[in-house]
Amino acid sequence: MNAPSEWADKDFYGDLGVASSASAEDIKKAYRKLARENHPDNNPGDTAAENRFKKAASAYDVLSDDKKRKEYDQLKAMLRGGGFGGFGGSGGAGFPGGFRSSSRPGPQTDADFSDIFGGSRGGFSQDGGINDIFGGIFNRGGGPGRAARPTRGADVETDITLDFKEAAKGTTIPLELSGEAPCTTCHGSGSKSGKTTTCSTCSGTGFVSEQRGAFGMSQPCTTCGGTGQHIPDPCATCNGRGTVHRRRTITVRIPAGVIDGQKVRLAGQGEAGPNGTPAGDLFVNVNVRPDDVFSRSGDDLEVVVPVSFAELALGDTVTVPTLDNPVKVKVPAGTPDGRTLRVRGRGIPKRGGEAGDLLVTVQVKVPGKLDDAATSALRTYAQAERDSGFNPRSGWAGN
């Protein structure tokens, strides 16, 4: 799962080969092209291609999501500007002009700590500032009084393995998960009666202030755990948390056309949030088993069909399997060995109800042993072939 804390050293736009101003459609096209070119099925044993495939999938996971993309862009812009690390030199990193204490007397010309960290107990700045930036990028904080509070449950990541046809057509599978789930006794509130009161220690802000020399520091309130709320009658089952650790089974719909290594995000299916806050997300890493008959190239389904020499030379109609019912494919007379025939709309399903194509490659199967009648007939044909002037090596290797 792509976590904001792991984005700092990533170049998602570079991994997809697009500009940071690229449209959502350009990002989708770039990802699909890279996925087709570098898919492990098309590059067996090629570690470099596999790594490019994984990078493209990770980049698309972030850049195809408007919220994640905005957070990623904010983080990158912040890092380009110097970031927030350290307060050394004449100016703190990322803050031109350095810092000074607002409580120190005398003339002050540098950036005021009260301007940066704010004067309230609830956070760094009353009107946004650092608290809002970090809240947006490093998940789900916000303005004063909210940054210390857990605002949603933890994300969960799990792996599944599907057969080729299940991945191509989509499937529904049960998943057994273990983690925080809403307490059934208090219905997730953490309170026997379902009522809470404002924490008297922090006045509901979730923070308490402490004066350290010239500076005032804020830290999460230990009385309420940063929630800003007091539970007068904690639930005995969950000890006031609103969640309990248990196993649960959910039914997950995997969309048609997923590829090996793809990550499917299921919003709100992660761990329950404390005291009734929203649940996190579930990220399902999909592994796809290779198939004995089919492979794929993007949305096209590929199959190699064994044929006889006579079927290619004289032409015939062969039965070809698909993801559903078999289809009849006409092989024109004189078709060369290895030619690929295209059947429209019988490939991998796409969004919107369309599907890719079925690519049928014909491959001559030579009999290992012939009976006397077949041998005699074939010798007669071979002589007739020579008499007609046909030379299979004409124009090859100097012939």
Automatic annotation (TrEMBL):
<keyword id="KW-0863">Zinc-finger</keyword>
<keyword id="KW-0677">Repeat</keyword>
<feature type="repeat" description="CXXCXGXG motif">
    <location>
        <begin position="221"/>
        <end position="228"/>
    </location>
</feature>
<keyword id="KW-0862">Zinc</keyword>
<feature type="binding site">
    <location>
        <position position="235"/>
    </location>
    <ligand>
        <name>Zn(2+) 1</name>
    </ligand>
</feature>
<dbReference type="InterPro" id="IPR001623">
    <property type="entry name" value="DnaJ_domain"/>
</dbReference>
<feature type="binding site">
    <location>
        <position position="221"/>
    </location>
    <ligand>
        <name>Zn(2+) 2</name>
    </ligand>
</feature>
<feature type="domain" description="CR-type">
    <location>
        <begin position="170"/>
        <end position="247"/>
    </location>
</feature>
<dbReference type="Pfam" id="PF01556">
    <property type="entry name" value="DnaJ_C"/>
</dbReference>
<dbReference type="InterPro" id="IPR001305">
    <property type="entry name" value="HSP_DnaJ_Cys-rich_dom"/>
</dbReference>
<feature type="binding site">
    <location>
        <position position="202"/>
    </location>
    <ligand>
        <name>Zn(2+) 2</name>
    </ligand>
</feature>
<dbReference type="InterPro" id="IPR036869">
    <property type="entry name" value="J_dom_sf"/>
</dbReference>
<feature type="binding site">
    <location>
        <position position="186"/>
    </location>
    <ligand>
        <name>Zn(2+) 1</name>
    </ligand>
</feature>
<feature type="domain" description="J">
    <location>
        <begin position="11"/>
        <end position="76"/>
    </location>
</feature>
<feature type="repeat" description="CXXCXGXG motif">
    <location>
        <begin position="235"/>
        <end position="242"/>
    </location>
</feature>
<keyword id="KW-0235">DNA replication</keyword>
<feature type="repeat" description="CXXCXGXG motif">
    <location>
        <begin position="183"/>
        <end position="190"/>
    </location>
</feature>
<dbReference type="InterPro" id="IPR036410">
    <property type="entry name" value="HSP_DnaJ_Cys-rich_dom_sf"/>
</dbReference>
<comment type="function">
    <text>Participates actively in the response to hyperosmotic and heat shock by preventing the aggregation of stress-denatured proteins and by disaggregating proteins, also in an autonomous, DnaK-independent fashion. Unfolded proteins bind initially to DnaJ; upon interaction with the DnaJ-bound protein, DnaK hydrolyzes its bound ATP, resulting in the formation of a stable complex. GrpE releases ADP from DnaK; ATP binding to DnaK triggers the release of the substrate protein, thus completing the reaction cycle.</text>
</comment>
<comment type="subunit">
    <text>Homodimer.</text>
</comment>
<feature type="repeat" description="CXXCXGXG motif">
    <location>
        <begin position="199"/>
        <end position="206"/>
    </location>
</feature>
<dbReference type="InterPro" id="IPR012724">
    <property type="entry name" value="DnaJ"/>
</dbReference>
<protein>
    <recommendedName>
        <fullName>Chaperone protein DnaJ</fullName>
    </recommendedName>
</protein>
<dbReference type="GO" id="GO:0008270">
    <property type="term" value="F:zinc ion binding"/>
</dbReference>
<dbReference type="GO" id="GO:0009408">
    <property type="term" value="P:response to heat"/>
</dbReference>
<dbReference type="InterPro" id="IPR008971">
    <property type="entry name" value="HSP40/DnaJ_pept-bd"/>
</dbReference>
<dbReference type="GO" id="GO:0031072">
    <property type="term" value="F:heat shock protein binding"/>
</dbReference>
<feature type="binding site">
    <location>
        <position position="183"/>
    </location>
    <ligand>
        <name>Zn(2+) 1</name>
    </ligand>
</feature>
<dbReference type="GO" id="GO:0042026">
    <property type="term" value="P:protein refolding"/>
</dbReference>
<dbReference type="Pfam" id="PF00226">
    <property type="entry name" value="DnaJ"/>
</dbReference>
<dbReference type="GO" id="GO:0051082">
    <property type="term" value="F:unfolded protein binding"/>
</dbReference>
<dbReference type="Pfam" id="PF00684">
    <property type="entry name" value="DnaJ_CXXCXGXG"/>
</dbReference>
<feature type="binding site">
    <location>
        <position position="199"/>
    </location>
    <ligand>
        <name>Zn(2+) 2</name>
    </ligand>
</feature>
<comment type="similarity">
    <text>Belongs to the DnaJ family.</text>
</comment>
<dbReference type="InterPro" id="IPR018253">
    <property type="entry name" value="DnaJ_domain_CS"/>
</dbReference>
<feature type="binding site">
    <location>
        <position position="224"/>
    </location>
    <ligand>
        <name>Zn(2+) 2</name>
    </ligand>
</feature>
<keyword id="KW-0479">Metal-binding</keyword>
<feature type="zinc finger region" description="CR-type">
    <location>
        <begin position="170"/>
        <end position="247"/>
    </location>
</feature>
<dbReference type="GO" id="GO:0005524">
    <property type="term" value="F:ATP binding"/>
</dbReference>
<keyword id="KW-0963">Cytoplasm</keyword>
<dbReference type="GO" id="GO:0006260">
    <property type="term" value="P:DNA replication"/>
</dbReference>
<dbReference type="InterPro" id="IPR002939">
    <property type="entry name" value="DnaJ_C"/>
</dbReference>
